[in-house]
Amino acid sequence: xxxxxxxxxxxxxxxxxxxxxxxxxxxxxxxxxxxxxxxxxxxxxxxxxxxxxxxxxxxxxxxxxxxxxxxxxxxxxxxxxxxxxxxxxxxxxxxxxxxxxxxxxxxxxxxxxxxxxxxxxxxxxxxxxxxxxxxxxxxxxxxxxxxxxxxxxxxxxxxxxxxxxxxxxxxxxxxxxxxxxxxxxxxxxxxxxxxxxxxxxxxxxxxxxxxxxxxxxxxxxxxxxxxxxxxxxxxxxxxxxxxxxxxxxxxxxxxxxxxxxxxxxxxxxxxxxxxxxxxxxxxxxxxxxxxxxxxxxxxxxxxxxxxxxxxxxxxxxxxxxxxxxxxxxxxxxxxxxxxxxxxxxxxxxxxxxxxxxxxxxxxxxxxxxxxxxxxxxxxxxxxxxxxxxxxxxxxxxxxxxxxxxx
Length: 406
Prior knowledge:
This protein is α/β, with parallel strands linked by helices. 40% of the residues lie in helices and 19% in strands.
C-alpha cells in the first residue's frame, strides 16, 4: 500500500499500550491524520481516559460511542436465537463484538472522509480476519492498515521501548496492578489468553477470574430466576421489563455471584493454530440454557432438530468473521422465522456453577399436551395400538438386512 495515498485513517482505539503505539506509528510512518474510535460495548472500563490520551496525541476527531444496546439487541440476541456455541464450548463472546466494531469503523470513515481504517489485531489471531472481512463486506474499496503485519514491534518489550522513546504514557490497571494476561471484555464475556495459559496443562490461578466467584465459594442455597421470552429474546427478569443490554448486565451479575460461566478451552483458530483461552460468560451461559428450555416447549420437533444441525455452521461463520456474509444472513432469516412461537417463561435455579431448569410455560405456544403424554389413561387421545404398524414399517429395512447377515 502506498503510504502517501493515505491522508486520513480511522483507528479502533482503546487507549492501551498497543493502540497508543499504533496511533503514534500511523502518524509517523504514514504521515496521516488519525481519527480515533472507542466503542463502549460494556467492557466495564472508564473510557474518558482514551479521549484524553488521543487529545494529547494531537487527534482532532475523537469518537467514543455507547454501543451497548445495539451490541446486545442486534448481535448477541440474534446469535442466541440460534443457540450458537463453537466447538461445543465457546459462546463466541469476542467473535460477536467484531462485526459491530467493523461496522462503526466503516461508518466513521464515511463520516470523516477517511481513506482507511486500522486495528490492533495481531497477525496470528482471528480478530484481524473478523475486522477485515466485516469491513470489506460493508465497503469493498476501503483500505486497511494492520500494523502488526507491517512493523517489527513484535513483543511487549519492543512496544514498551517505543512508547518510552515517544513519550507515550502507559497506565496500569485501575487497581494499580497490571494483569499478565491478554484480556478482552464486553457485555457478553471476558477472555484471558497468554502468560501461563500458553501451557494447556497449567490450571488458571484463582486470582485470574474477574466476573465470577469460584463455584465452591458461591451461596449454599440456589438463586431462582424467571426469564420471560418474546420471539426468542428475553424481555423481562422476574417480571421486570428490561432492555437487551440491561438483561445481559443483570444476568452477568446474578450468574457471576453463583459461580456460573467459567470455561477453559483449547480452540481451533481460523488461521490454523490451536489456542488456549479462558472465558467468563455468566449471562450468556444462563441465556443458552433458558432459550433451549423455552424452545423445547414451543418449537416443532423437526424445526428444532434442523436448527441444531445448522447451528455448528452458523457458529463457525461467526467465529471466522462472516457475520455480514449472505450465508449467515440466510441462516439468520431461517432461525428468526422459527422464533415467532418462542414465547413464554422459564424458571431456572442457579447453584454453584450450575444452571438448572426448574420449569417452563407458554400460554400461547406450548406444544406440550398432557392429555397425550400422560402415563395415565388418556381418554383416546393416543391409540397405543397404532405404534405396532409404525414400528414394523420403520423396522422393515433393518429386518431385510438382518436376514442377509444370517
